[in-house]
Amino acid sequence: MPKESSKAKATQILTRDDGAKVLSLEDLRLVVSDGPAKDQELALNRDKVCIGSDKRNDLVIPDDTVSRHHCELQKFGDSFLLKDLDSTNGTRLDGTSVREAFVTPGAVIEIGGTSIKVMSRSQQFAVEPSEKTEFGQLKGKSVKIREVFSILDRVAPTDATVLIQGETGTGKELVARAIHQFSHRAQEAFVVFDCSAVSPNLIESELFGHVKGSFTGAIADRRGAFEAAHRGTLFLDEIGELTEELQPKLLRAIEHKEIRRVGSEQALRVDVRLLAATNRNLAEEVKAGNFREDLFFRLSVIPVQMPALRQRKEDVAMLMEHFLNEVVSKSKMEHKVKGVNKKAMELLMEHSWPGNVRELRNVIEGAVAMSSGGKLEPKDFIFFARGDGAGQAQAQQGEGLIGQSLEEIEKTVIEGTLRSHRGNKMATAKTLGIAYSTLYEKLKKYGIES
């Protein structure tokens, strides 16, 4: 079983003494250090590199002791797997004969009378705000979000593991999807696995798969998320919720690039680009003993911190316009909403957005449903804030609803949403974020006719 001899980070974000952020990218190269082709170099910037004496190889070694097709380096995630191709004289890595082994910077590959060193050359880029105001489905013009765009622009084409942190609703999954979209794996699968949405006793099976008969209910072989994401991207959402029992198994899968289905002894090689997200502070979770330190460092090769919406208020107007256009274009309402008036815009800017971008979208969708057309007014907005005291808008929030009971407000919202969808109950339930059966009961309760 091939093992990685190092956990060195190939790509990472550094902070200089002056507080400025620097993105450090490692450029891996093969350098012939001894033999007939001494000083020849080749960048490891492709999925597979073939080495041998035949001229069709990527790295040609004119050495009589080297086979025509001697060995190859195959990319697996952010590592390279060295494979001997049944050569005559064998392949050695750091003096040890190998059939397969992961190589790391500083390693020496010996084939025949030739030595090849794996060299690492660091390139550093200052994290300056990007000139872009969009990256995938992410949007914003504030400095904070454009700094994120700058990091993503550099990191997306690599296979570096990214840990996305931020409050609920900041767009962590959109970051993961954007990274996949602009990577060389874009045409392969993007698999989302929510660690908080699966029962603890089923997570191992859902991640790694299982074989028939491995446990009660396993009536057939089943592949897990890792296999489904082979050659593509696996996004582990809410990674902070992963149980302590599964953390070492995930670490092993990441380090060895292989998994075992539950109930099987057979190791399966998997090539995935790993992305993870959490609204927890994993560094604090490590200190508290709730999260493995080695897994934390393996996941946080590139840490991306998504800013809260209250930290980038200058993006509210841009996001509002985007969501409004999106909601109106999908709406079947007879009247059309054409923007927001000045007081409504002031209301949106004053709100602290504890639910972040997701809350903004929901508020806009609800306001469109409540509106009678033209421009949105303060009375059209309903905020479900946590009341954190950070600049909450006061009486203006849904001022048309002040003095009404919660049941009256709920009835009004359901009627407005149902009207906006021209009586389509399924679409109404989806917009309100409730089950169809729940909507049916509420329609019956309030005597609402569709």
Report a brief summary of the structure.
By secondary structure, this protein is an alpha/beta fold. It contains 13 helices and 23 strands.
Explain this structure.
- The chain is an alpha/beta fold and 450 residues long.
- Helices cover 29% and strands 24% of the residues.
- The protein contains 13 helices and 23 strands.
- Strands 1, 2, 3, 8, 9, 11 and 12 form a 7-stranded antiparallel beta sheet that branches. A 5-stranded mixed beta sheet has the order 5-4-6-7-10, with no helix packed on it. The protein has a 5-stranded parallel beta sheet with strand order 16-17-20-15-21.
- α11 crosses α12 (425-432).
- The radius of gyration is 27 Å and the shape is elongated.
- 35% of the residues are buried.
Name some characteristics of this structure.
alpha/beta; 13 helices; 5-stranded mixed beta sheet; 450 residues; 24% strand; single chain; elongated; 7-stranded antiparallel beta sheet
Taking all Cα atoms into account, the compactness measure Rg is 27 Å
Distance between the termini: 63 Å
Shape: elongated
Biggest sheet overview: 7 strands, antiparallel
Structural class of the helices, strands and pairings?
A: alpha/beta
- Total DSSP helices: 13
| Assembly level | single chain
Mean pLDDT: 85
Report the sheet-strand fraction: 15-25%
Given as residue ranges, the uncertain stretches (5+ residues, pLDDT < 50) are 1-8, 385-399
Q: Report the helical percentage.
A: 25-40%
Count of extended strands: 23
